[in-house]
């Protein structure tokens, strides 16, 4: 059996309330009103009025008048109640029907659809909730399209290069040589790095990356990063420096993930700093340890700065694509910092350099917790002290 819709149920509920009210009014009036009138006549008789001869006529006349009045009251009141019930039901149902139509169009792919404001507060709150959800879903869909488009764009270049070389080798227009094979291997490495970065970013955004929080000494970690990159730099490359006090408090973080963030930031700084210096700075502020990577490179334009942590974003695509970056490192870094309860920021000025900094919570000294964390600390997370 099909249930009646909301409009019908609202209308019937109003009608039931009206019928109960009118029935109660008529019943009470029919039973008690004549008795009260007779009692009033008896009081008048006791006051010196002679109403015995006309008592019956007065009661009958009163009942007749009351019945006619009740009849017209029911007619007028019932008609008014029916009209008001219909109007109220329609006023409530109209925005709900409109919302249903909008949700159907939204489900069909029209993600720009929004529910207009309503004068009924409860329905207006429902409309606001739907609009917020629709805005978020529209953003998710746009990011999905951007990701597919950017991924297609990134994969096309190395695949085109590999395809061209393989076709040339197959038809004999290109002579096989070690240089050709090295180029093919280089493009394959680019593909593998892109796939690995995408997998890492996907895990990070989904929260699947394991984060092992433990006490971390920041200065030895910065020194190790500088030594790792210094071994690979040429003489004309920028100099790497560490600016970190020895008394810096320990951070509660995952040392491997912090190292991964720093490698991404330092690698990004080296890519855009052909000469000058790159400084790894750390300091404590309130309940946070801040780590910054400051360079004297080319800098980032003010209009581009809000987008630096977006996946596949590049301020100069043609240059970046040949510089070895995948455009995902900063997005991965942001998510890794967020998973460790920190924040990451960027400041830059064209021609003056850039500063990328992120925060980590300071370790709260609790003897039991600290001892258990030290017992779990792995040898890989213990970095030797440096004289830098």
Automatic annotation (TrEMBL):
Domain of life according to the entry: Bacteria
A single MF term (Gene Ontology): phosphorelay sensor kinase activity
Domain HAMP: residue ranges: 90-142
UniProt main location, coarse: membrane
Location relative to the cell: Membrane
Annotated Gene Ontology cellular component terms: membrane
SMART domains with a match to the protein in the record: HAMP, HATPase_c, HisKA
EC annotation from Swiss-Prot or TrEMBL: 2.7.13.3
InterPro entries: HAMP_dom, HATPase_C_sf, HATPase_dom, His_kinase_dom, HisK_dim/P_dom, HisK_dim/P_sf, Sensor_HK_Regulatory, Sig_transdc_His_kin-like_C
Transmembrane segments: 12-32, 70-89
The UniProt record lists the keyword Kinase: yes
Domain named Histidine kinase: residues: 150-364
Catalytic reactions of this protein: ATP + protein L-histidine = ADP + protein N-phospho-L-histidine
Pfam family, one: HATPase_c
Keywords: Kinase, Membrane, Phosphoprotein, Transferase, Transmembrane, Transmembrane helix, Two-component regulatory system
Protein name: histidine kinase
Organism: Leptolyngbya boryana NIES-2135
């Amino acid at each position: 059996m099909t249930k009646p819709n909301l409009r019908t149920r609202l209308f019937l509920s109003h009608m039931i309330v009206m019928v109960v009210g009118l029935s109660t009014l008529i019943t009470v009036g029919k039973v008690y009103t004549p008795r009260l009138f007779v009692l009033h006549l008896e009081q008048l008789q006791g006051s010196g009025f002679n109403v015995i001869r006309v008592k019956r006529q007065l009661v009958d006349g009163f009942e007749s008048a009351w019945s006619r009045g009740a009849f017209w009251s029911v007619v007028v009141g019932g008609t008014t109640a029916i009209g008001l019930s219909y109007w109220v039901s329609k006023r409530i149902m109209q925005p709900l029907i409109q919302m249903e139509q909008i949700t159907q169009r939204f489900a069909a792919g029209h993600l720009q659809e929004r529910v207009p404001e309503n004068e009924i507060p409860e329905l207006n709150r429902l409309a606001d909730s739907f609009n917020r959800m629709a805005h978020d879903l529209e953003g998710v869909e746009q990011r999905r399209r951007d990701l597919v488009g950017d991924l297609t764009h990134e994969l096309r270049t190395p695949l085109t290069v590999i395809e061209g070389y393989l076709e040339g080798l197959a038809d004999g227009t290109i002579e096989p040589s070690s240089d050709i094979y090295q180029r093919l291997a280089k493009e394959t490495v680019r593909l593998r790095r892109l796939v690995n970065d995408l997998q890492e970013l996907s895990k990070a955004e989904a929260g699947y990356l394991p984060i092992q929080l433990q006490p971390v000494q920041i200065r030895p970690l910065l020194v190790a990063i500088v030594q790792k990159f210094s071994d690979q730099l040429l003489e004309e490359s920028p100099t790497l420096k560490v600016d970190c006090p020895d008394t810096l408090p320990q951070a509660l973080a995952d040392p491997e993930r912090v190292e991964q963030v720093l490698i991404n930031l330092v690698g990004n700084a080296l890519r855009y700093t052909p000469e000058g210096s790159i400084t790894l700075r750390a300091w404590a502020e309130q309940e946070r340890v801040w780590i910054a990577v400051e360079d004297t490179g080319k800098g980032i334009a003010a209009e581009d700065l809000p987008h630096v942590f977006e996946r596949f974003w590049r301020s100069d695509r043609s240059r970046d694509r040949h510089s070895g970056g995948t455009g995902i490192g900063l997005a991965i870094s942001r998510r890794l910092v967020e998973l460790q309860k920190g924040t990451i920021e960027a400041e830059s000025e064209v021609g003056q350099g850039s500063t990328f900094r992120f925060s980590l919570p300071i370790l709260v000294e609790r003897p039991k917790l600290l001892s258990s964390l030290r017992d779990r600390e792995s040898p890989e997370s213990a970095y030797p002290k440096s004289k830098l």
